[in-house]
User: Fold this.
Amino acid sequence: MTVKPLSDRVVIKMTETEEKTESGIFLTASAKEKPQIAEVKAVGEGKITDDDVKIPMNVKVGDKVIISKYSGTEIKIDGEELIIVSQNDILAIVE
Assistant:
């Protein structure tokens, strides 16, 4: 099954966090921070303003992005955990 986001929404998949610190200490699940870097899996067509002007999307499929903490709606499709966020919740593109 595929997910096609509407308007200015983006489907992302969070990247895995490091389980070990640089000094070699392994972290438990409760000690890990929620990751903020994700990969873009699908992109909507863009938002249409009240004046019927289409605002283009700034991200594309495959981009690595930084998102706001605790943003979006979590979904599970075919066993894969994804998040749908608004383009406004994306803070930066990682290059």
About this structure: The mean pLDDT is 87. The longest strand covers residues 37-43. The two ends are 29 Å apart (CA to CA).
